[in-house]
Write a structure and sequence with these properties.
Chain B: This is Oxidoreductase. Chain B: GO terms for molecular function: iron ion binding; oxidoreductase activity. Chain B: It comes from Reyranella soli. The structure holds two protein chains of two kinds. Chain A contains five helices and five strands. Chain A is an alpha+beta fold. Chain A folds into two domains: about 80 residues, Beta-grasp domain (Ubiquitin-like (UB roll), Roll), CATH 3.10.20; about 70 residues, Orthogonal Bundle (DNA polymerase, domain 1). A five-stranded mixed sheet of chain A has the order 2-1-5-3-4, sandwiched between helices. In chain A, helix 2 crosses helix 5. Chain A is globular. The N and C termini of chain A lie far apart (about 55 Å). The relative contact order of chain A is 0.15. Chain B is of the alpha+beta class. Chain B has 21 helices and 31 strands. In chain B, the strands form eight sheets. Chain B has a seven-stranded mixed sheet, with helices on both faces. The radius of gyration of chain B is 27 Å and the shape is globular. Classes of the chains: A alpha+beta, B alpha+beta. Chains A and B meet through helix 2, helix 3, helix 4 and helix 5 of A and helix 1 and helix 19 of B. The structure holds FE2/S2 (inorganic) cluster (FES) (2 copies). One FE2/S2 (inorganic) cluster binds next to loops of chain A.
Chain lengths: ~160, ~775
């Protein structure tokens, strides 16, 4: 089967790759491009460990076929820090112990960033429902939700 | 609101603080490498062919077509592994038999559950590997199967193992059955106790198998060389166990295998056994290439360690004043396809929270056509606690007594002798009950429509074997090396103890987790042992290093090493009488190391005993939607005696995570088998674990009752939190609705059915 040639932008860098028609975006990110920060927890859209942004939309990359990425702008966890400066969410997650094993963390960070970009002033319930597509088995979500609310407050504060 | 009540206020500089974890940046940037993130040049992809049948004789396997496929480099079956003797070896808190392990990693005579591996291939791509699986022909003779424990115990049940005679049967077993073992614990005279009791409550409960649900599926990479050496990368709670099991399974020496633990994406006990590792190693040996294997989520559910379900009968006899005078508990527990359920700890923990004179406990370990169970956080204990703590709640209602007061009246204390024979040292059951009783949560009125439930739980915690090393770098910074995968922040707690001991800044200590060839043996990350036992090894290795540092300072000062003390990260003369010298820092001593005796290191190896048991008490407010049977958890508080909270945030995290796993166990999670013995819900969509929107904040109260047998008072904290939630939820449901649930999970369909059934009675009563 002939490979498909795809042109995309990943974390701001123009990126091209060859893939099979049935490969997922997650497979290509991990196996072809070496971007293993996005994780596979289920491969069926149920855990959110593979969360990435595609053209500004939060998606499960295990549910996107790689050829669909043609012409799209993709953001992954590897692009979240700027140089050696962690994103406020990344900093807060470490500071508040919002991760234990850390396998779910990239997905939660991408999803939380998407939330705060869209709704900078979420309630606790809104955070909980927004993050309901991301499974974490270690933390009971408590510290994750608190970290996101804290960052939201700080970002609002510094925007004033 | 979360509370931390340190007993050590002002005593420590680092212990009890909340610094950032050493691996934090790696884990929030995607840089941390987990099991499936490792690859090697030229690697093959390995895939497993699994039995579609719950129970079948494997008459023959024809792999020739698969082997002939272009791109397939190796195919293996059970024939590629030597058979193993009947030999019991420990894994975490559980025990396994080598004879069974080799049959679990690859079915031999029979396939014993749906998903049981029967063959594996390695090929140049995943697509070719999958195609190869479809070309393997297995000739099965399908046998009748049995899934349910009670069914499996019947005399006419399909028998899984023809050699299995019930151990501990009375009278001794004369023919094979599915009951692998019968155990018994006695204290006092239960019969006489019940005769004396003024109130006796008796009830039967059932629970279903649940999965640990770690988000990272099993994954491994193995690379075998022509000289017999094999390197393995594996996501595991115990890389030394991987080495030990695989050496046996492949007939190698442990020194031929070097296992590097990857970062681990959750385990909860489920990653203390081997599944893929021996297969990848054998495939690599046969193909001469590295082989990478990962499990799909479906395989994780079908073929990796669920925690068992079981049936529990509980009988409690008490006096009208609430004093319990007799207790009985009978547990029948699923082992999965091979013997070895955690029925032992389930029995031992059942009444361990209480001081009861007359106790009888009996347990049965039962095989059936399910995947072999693995440890899951306090293995077995949540099952017996659900039954015992529910029964206690009924007793409290019957006596019209506050459920905390009832428990306080009977609480175990220092000196209490358990039914399994141990007499408690310093424990914190009473303090933990009081912490809930005095909490703002418990004192607040229950909201209309809600019910409030409380329950307690106990776990032993373990010690076992640990090794550690400490090195001073040339510039005086410190590396601390241990051998337990960090599953929830243990690097931070080890570094905190090392910094405290050394008197240096936490950020000057770098904790490293070494592979099996780079540090001495360490038992698994499990049983809540790492901060306790490996922590002790780290402390001892640092002390060993300090001893050496003092020798070096003495050399420089030309005084007796005994006349040197270590204080605030410096060597100092013990007093003016030994002379006046400027204190020497780690950096000073490191700079002169070449002239004073070479590198400065410390080592420790221990078999750690003296683990301090832990007690937890949880309180939950919830309401039930009368139409749908859906439970809304409104408020939740978990209190626990945590010994000393080395890094309180990660201790809170253990309480919160365990509580939520328990809530999932109580409300939704279950293995559902169809009539053919196949799992109907092997995915996160149908096996529903709690998500953020299902939950409120999980408030925590860290009660510090230090373990006298650890220099910093550490008790394991990871196991206890999963024990109380199930009964706490059930008790709250009973108080919210008037309906007492005895079967898990209390899922919407089950609960609405129970509510419907109770309605006419309720109406009639009104
Ligand atoms: S891996 Fe994509 S949602 Fe789980
Ligand atoms: S931290 Fe382990 S799954 Fe979230």
């Amino acid at each position: 089967m002939a490979k498909i040639h795809v042109n995309t932008t990943i974390n701001g860098a123009p990126t091209e790759f060859l893939c099979d028609a049935n490969q997922t975006l997650l497979d290509v990110l991990r196996d072809n491009l070496g971007l293993t920060g996005s994780k596979e927890g289920c491969g069926s859209g149920d855990c959110g460990a593979c969360s990435v942004m595609v053209n500004g939309r939060l998606v499960c990359s295990c549910l996107v076929l790689a050829p669909e990425a043609q012409g799209m702008k993709i953001e992954t966890i590897e692009g979240m820090a700027e140089g050696d400066k962690l994103h406020p969410l990344q900093k807060k997650f470490v500071e508040m112990a919002a991760l234990q094993c850390g396998i779910c963390t990239p997905g939660f960070l991408i999803a939380s960033k998407a939330l705060l970009e869209k709704y900078p002033n979420p309630t606790e319930d809104e955070v909980r429902y927004w993050l309901a597509g991301n499974l974490c088995r270690c933390t009971g979500y408590d510290k994750i939700v608190t970290a996101v609310l804290d960052v939201a407050a700080e970002m609002r504060e510094s925007a004033r | 609101m979360s509370e931390h009540r340190p007993n050590t206020e002002g005593k420590y500089k680092w212990i009890g603080t909340r610094p950032e974890r050493p691996d934090g940046a790696d884990k929030v940037t995607g840089r941390a490498r987990f099991g499936a993130d490792f690859s090697l040049p030229g690697q093959l992809i390995g895939k497993v062919l699994r039995s579609p049948h719950a129970h079948a004789v494997i008459k023959s396997i024809d792999t020739s077509k698969a082997l002939a496929l272009n791109g397939v480099k190796a195919v293996i079956t059970a024939q590629d592994f030597p058979d193993q003797p009947n030999l019991i070896v420990p894994t975490g808190e559980m025990q396994v038999n080598m004879r069974d392990i080799t049959r679990n990693i690859m079915a031999r005579e029979k396939a014993l559950y749906e998903g049981h591996p029967v063959a594996a291939v390695a090929a140049v791509s995943e697509a070719i590997a999958k195609q190869a699986l479809s070309l393997i022909k297995v000739d099965y003779e399908v046998l009748p199967h049995v899934i349910d424990v009670a069914e499996a115990m019947k005399p006419d049940a399909p028998i899984l193992h023809d050699h299995l005679l019930t151990e501990g049967a009375n009278p001794p077993a004369s023919k094979p059955s599915n009951i692998a073992k019968r155990i018994e614990f006695k204290k006092g005279d239960a019969k006489a106790g019940f005769a004396q009791a003024q109130v006796v409550i008796e009830k039967d409960y059932t629970t279903q198998a649940v999965h640990q649900g770690y988000i990272e599926p099993h994954a491994t990479l193995a690379s075998a060389a022509e000289d017999g050496q094999i390197q393995v990368w594996s996501t595991t709670q115990g890389h030394f166990q991987v080495r030990g099991f695989c050496a046996r399974l492949l007939g190698l020496e442990t020194s031929q295998i070097r296992v590097t633990p990857t970062e681990i994406g959750g385990g909860f006990g489920g990653k203390t056994v081997v599944y893929l590792e021996p297969l990848a190693m054998r495939l690599s040996q046969k193909s001469g290439k590295p082989v990478k294997m990962t499990m799909a989520r479906e395989d994780v559910f079908r073929a990796s360690g669920p925690a068992p379900g079981g049936n529990v009968k509980v009988k409690i006899g008490a006096m009208r004043d609430g004093r319990i005078v007799a207790a009985e508990c009978i547990v029948e527990m699923q082992a999965g396809a091979f013997p070895g359920s955690p029925v032992g700890p389930a029995c031992m923990c059942s009444f361990a929270c209480y001081d009861i004179d007359n106790v009888y406990i009996e347990g049965f370990d039962v095989v059936s056509n399910r995947p072999k169970v693995a440890a899951y956080r306090a293995p077995g204990a949540p099952i017996s606690a659900w039954a015992v703590e529910s029964t206690l709640d009924i007793l409290a209602q019957e006596l019209d007594m506050d459920p905390i007061d009832l428990r306080l009246k009977n609480a175990a204390k220092e000196g209490t002798k358990t039914a399994y024979g141990v007499t408690f040292n310093t424990i914190g059951m009473v303090e933990t009950l009081e912490a809930i009783r005095d909490s703002e949560h418990y004192k607040s009125p229950v909201k209309p429509g809600y019910g409030r439930g409380v329950a307690a739980g106990f776990w032993f915690n373990i010690g076992a074997d640990s090794s550690a090393a400490s090195h001073v770098g040339e510039d005086g910074s410190v590396t601390v090396i241990s051998g337990n995968p960090d599953i929830g922040g243990s690097r931070a707690s080890l570094a905190l103890m090392a910094a405290e001991e050394l008197g240096v800044d936490y950020n000057k200590v770098r904790p490293i987790i070494a592979d099996t060839a780079s540090i001495g043996f360490n038992f698994v990350t499990g049983g809540s042992r790492v901060t306790f036992a490996t922590g002790l090894a780290v402390v001892n290795s640092v002390r060993d290093m300090i001893r050496e540092l003092k020798v070096r300072a003495a050399k420089i000062w030309k005084i007796d090493p005994e006349a040197v003390i270590w204080e605030g990260g410096m060597a100092k003369p013990a007093g003016n009488q030994v002379g006046t010298f400027e204190p020497l820092s780690l950096a000073d001593l490191a700079a002169q190391a070449g002239r004073t005796g070479g590198p400065i290191n410390g080592h420790a190896q221990l078999n750690v005993t003296g683990a301090g048991p832990g007690f937890g008490v949880h309180c939950v407010d919830l309401k039930v939607d009368e139409d749908t049977g859906c439970v809304h958890v409104g408020r939740y508080t978990a209190a626990q005696d945590v010994g000393t909270a080395i890094h309180p945030s990660y201790v809170e995290g253990q309480l919160q995570g365990g509580a939520v796993q328990g809530i999932g166990w109580a409300l939704n999670e279950e293995y559902i088998y169809n009539a053919k013995g196949k799992l109907d819900n092997p995915g996160f969509l149908d096996y529903r674990m709690p998500v953020a929107s299902d939950l409120p904040k999980i408030e925590t109260i860290l009660v510090e009752v230090p373990n006298p047998q650890h220099p910093y008072g550490v008790r394991g904290v990871g196991e206890v939190p999963i024990i109380p939630p199930i009964a706490a939820v059930g008790n709250a449901v009973a108080r919210a609705t008037g309906v007492r649930m005895v079967d898990l999970p209390m899922s919407p369909p089950r609960l609405s059915e129970a509510l419907d059934a109770a309605r006419p009675m309720k109406m009639a009563a009104e």
